[in-house]
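User: Hey, quick favor. My workstation is busy. Could you predict this chain's structure for me?
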Amino acid sequence: MQRISCAIYVRKSTEKGLEMEFNSLHNQEESCKNYILSQTFNSWEYYKTYTDGGISGGTMKRPGLEDLLGDIRKGLIQTILVYKIDRFSRSIIDFYNMMKELEKCGCSFVSITQAFDTSTSMGKLTLNMLLSFAQFEREVSSERIRDKKAASKRKGFWMGGLPNLGYNIVEKQLVPNQKEAELVKLIFEKYLELGSITRVREYLEETGKTSKLWKTHTGTMRGGRKISSSMIARILRSKLYIGRIEDKMNGDSWPGRHKAIIGQKLFDQVQTLMDENRNQYAETYDREGYLLSNKVVDSDGNVFKNQKCSKNSKRKYRYYILKGKYLPAGDLDEITIQLVKDLLDSQLDTIIGEPRTMEFKAIDYAALTIREQANLIKAMVDKIVFHDSRLTFFFKIEDLAYLKPFQKENYLNTKTWKMGERSENFKPYASNDGRHLVIQKSICLNNRHLSNLYVGKGKKFISVTENSNNLIKTLAIGWRYGKLAREGMTLKDMRVSESRGNRSIYRYLSLNYLSPNIVNDIMDSRVPPHVNLQMLFDIASKYPDFNDQEKAFYNDR
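Assistant: No problem, here it is.
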């Protein structure tokens, strides 16, 4: 008779009691092992115990459960034993999905204290009823906890959490911290004075103000960092500082048992100003951290607006967006900063024949602070026009009075590098109306297409030289893979040695069959501006005929 490998799954929702010599987990495991022994005549044998201590049954993110499901998929387990069904899951949806997975893998499920057979309709009904009661118990417990918290807040009790700036925690109650309370008052007063959260943040940075520094119950120090704009916004909106306790679920608040830091009149004035600022059109788009807000346009004059987004709540992405087109803000800002540096260091009098632009030479860019550098660039740039493979920069030269705050007395920038010595395509010229200094710069889109938000790591907006270097490096990798294949290395060995998947290796190998004309132009950096890495792979894999490859390579999309 074929042996049936049996796994035991045990779980406990809280960590309380886990330190005991014999706890609930041990009891569950011992009972399941005894049950396996009682089924020896059915060829059952113990395989392994999977444990999750201190983890709720309402979530699937349990290390022991994940290991168990992984071994089931490998075919190592034919039967799962649990003490009670709610040890496995308290969610009907999660349990239903796991049961489908078990059926697919040919694995049965046994609850040793609740007799049922999942192979019959009555057994499935019993199982769902038990699971419904388990989920009901969990939800009722959650409701009891929420009701208790709401009742405590209505009586003015602080219900715990991270310590707020301005208060210390003494015997589970909030007590004002005099030094931090003064900082909170300063934030409220400065917001009324400056009218902008960004300006308040800049002021706090300049004066060296930091967030609350506190010690956890384990002795670890937390906080003490720069105060962010989001933190300032939370402080300005918090009713905690006027002596009230809030219920964030419904927005209600009640008088608290702690002392207020901010007066009601000052708090109301700040709320009114914040509501007014929020309703302004520019506030929707011109968010902090954007160097070129409302300065980037397309060839028709439509303005790119600002947008922030994230993926899986982990990483922030900043873009200038217009009609489904996304320009990576960080890369565009970097190109603009470098172009300004090159302009200030260039031979301005001979390149454009505009003597008035020599006033740029009185600016010591390296001596400016980061904020002053950003303000200079914002003042210099009138607009940037985006084309598919080109950026056109328009710098203001009609009236250069705006340069005075950034100019250094008795200073002259002696750097006079000529065009062509550094930045590619650096050919400044004055516009016909004499209002702008115009510079055109060729660019390429790295990795896939412009409208794809999440296109992998690295820069997405690169210069022509960087793009050419990337293509050359890619060809070198493809040739190396081709050499390894000709020497007899198998795809499996290549996958292990290069840490790449089959599809990736095939794509690089396809580069060995590119047209010689294309390869020569890439090696000589004569690459059409619309060709990036993704397009090179597409050309190599989709067009086996050399003539078709060349048409795709040289014809603009």
